[in-house]
Amino acid sequence: MKNLLVVFLLISFGALAKGTVVCADSIQLRRHVYTITGGPTFRNINDTTTLNKTSHYIQNELGKYTTTVTLQPYQVNGKEYRNIIASYGPENAPRIIIGAHYDVCDEQAGADDNASGVAGLLELARMLSKEDASKWQYRIDLVAYTLEEPPSFKTANMGSTVHARHLAEAHVPVLGMISLEMIGYYKDAKHTQKYPLGFFKWFYGTRGNYITVVKKLHGGKFVRQFTRGFKHGDNIITKVFAAPSWVPGVDWSDHLSYWAYGWQALMITDTSFFRNANYHEKTDTPDTLDYSRMSFVVTNLFNAVSKMAKG
């Protein structure tokens, strides 16, 4: 018993010496995913009632952790759609954008695509609220986008396109952008991971048990710094995929909207349909996700971006 007490004291002293350790909560991630995917209707472009209900939930959750939450409404074919933005750090400092889309394709729950990314965004908001952001050199904006999915994908109607265009027109300095696009699905068995080009399996393996940082070749200083910080966490396998944007999947999320303005951007993903057969299917449900590994992803994300924000 005495030896156990000594070990406990040593661990506690070490934690205090290093500062408070902030970790993502898998229970909170699960709660967010189940809430966002709950209900009889679907948060797609045709159902603005459900989309708005989801946006209200996101806005209320973000409002628990920062007083700076704003809506960015815009019109498409006479209907209103909304981005939700939560900010941390000095108002006029260059920005780090972290975003995830909350809409779905057609009529399906969209647990991995992309309630998982939005849940990560909301949990990150809670974690960032524990930091003294007034001393940061950069500002972090968390953005929940609407209308990433078809038929809006790669059009001016994407929420991320609207957001990026506003920043460019307002001459807002952007350090870089991180897209959270499906972060909840993992498989440990062999041959559960596929690739856009078959030979990639010789470099990345056939087990779908890792998270991926997807970036352009020669992504830039922001991308390099973030990737180093994100990979520093040893609680989940992380693999970096660097390729030209023409390789299938490299630009398939909201980060492409920021590339269009010359800003550095990357995507964090479980590789979507290259692993998850539930992609854009009614089987993309909350019970298929691994909330423990999701929490590791968000913890590593927090550690990387909070360090970068401090300069």
Automatic annotation (TrEMBL):
<keyword id="KW-0732">Signal</keyword>
<dbReference type="GO" id="GO:0008235">
    <property type="term" value="F:metalloexopeptidase activity"/>
</dbReference>
<protein>
    <submittedName>
        <fullName>Peptidase M28</fullName>
    </submittedName>
</protein>
<dbReference type="GO" id="GO:0006508">
    <property type="term" value="P:proteolysis"/>
</dbReference>
<dbReference type="InterPro" id="IPR007484">
    <property type="entry name" value="Peptidase_M28"/>
</dbReference>
<dbReference type="InterPro" id="IPR045175">
    <property type="entry name" value="M28_fam"/>
</dbReference>
<feature type="domain" description="Peptidase M28">
    <location>
        <begin position="83"/>
        <end position="295"/>
    </location>
</feature>
<feature type="signal peptide">
    <location>
        <begin position="1"/>
        <end position="17"/>
    </location>
</feature>
<dbReference type="Pfam" id="PF04389">
    <property type="entry name" value="Peptidase_M28"/>
</dbReference>
